Amino acid sequence: AALPGAAMLRRSLWLCLCLCSCPGRGLRVHEYLYFQVLSPGDIRYIFTATPAKDFGGVFNTRYEQIHLVPADPPEACGELNNGVFIQDQIALVERGGCSFLSKTRVIQEHGGRAVIIADNAYDNDSFYIEMIQDSTRRTADIPALFLLGRDGYMIRRSLEQHGLPWAVISIPVNVTSIPTYEMMQPPWTFW
């Protein structure tokens, strides 16, 4: 079926962004990084995130199966109640309460391999926030990614509904190797 004009243009631009990225040279500013939820099955989609602009590390390793653990408390501005589960995993954190860098440092101090910070505006399904260094001279070594609020909300909601402490994800995912018709994108996000 043919896509309407605007949808076709958006998909073409998205495909161009995917194909124009340079694998093997690290993720640069204004690029997207993709991850796929493997479990639970009701959110088995490929999600889009953006890297922090001027802090944090890059993914030098592809994790075929790693836990995405929602931080407790969700804003991760201090000591975590579930920090032991974040050790060697990836944390899902919610925006607000402190700077993006502060959240990243908290997850790093708990041994997390990366942090995905979801917008706290649960209805945000299209606007990516540019995560920048705060006014301190602190640094962080782990990758920090920004996730749309709707995506973060849907992941957390699914985990709560299934009574699960974490999702299993694959990150990063090279979407250029996946035919467009096979891409499983969240149905609530317009591509």
Describe the overall structure.
This protein has 191 residues and is α/β, with parallel strands linked by helices. It has one domain: Glucose Oxidase, domain 1 (3-Layer(bba) Sandwich), CATH 3.50.30. The protein has four helices and seven strands. It has helices at 5-20, 83-86, 100-109, 149-162, and strands at residues 33-39, 46-51, 63-70, 90-94, 114-118, 144-147, 167-171. Strand 4 (90-94), helix 3 and strand 5 form a beta-alpha-beta unit. The longest helix has 16 residues, at 5-20.
Provide the domain count: 1
E-strand count: 7
- Biggest sheet overview: 7 strands, mixed, barrel
Oligomer designation: single chain
CATH-derived architecture: 3-Layer(bba) Sandwich
The spatial strand order of the largest sheet comes to 1-2-6-5-4-3-7
> How confident overall, as mean pLDDT?
85
Structural class estimated from helices and strands = alpha/beta
| CATH fold title | Glucose Oxidase, domain 1
Helical fraction equals 10-25%
First and last CA, distance: 16 Å
Taking pLDDT < 50 over at least 5 consecutive residues as the criterion, the unreliable ranges are 1-29
Percent of sequence in beta strands: 15-25%
H and E order: HEEEHEHEEHE
CATH level 1 name: Alpha Beta
The value of Rg in angstroms is: 16 Å
Count of discrete alpha- or pi-helical segments spanning 4 or more residues: 4
Choose one word for the global shape: globular
Protein name: Protease-associated domain-containing protein 1
Keywords: Glycoprotein, Secreted, Signal
Main location: secreted
Signal peptide: 1-26
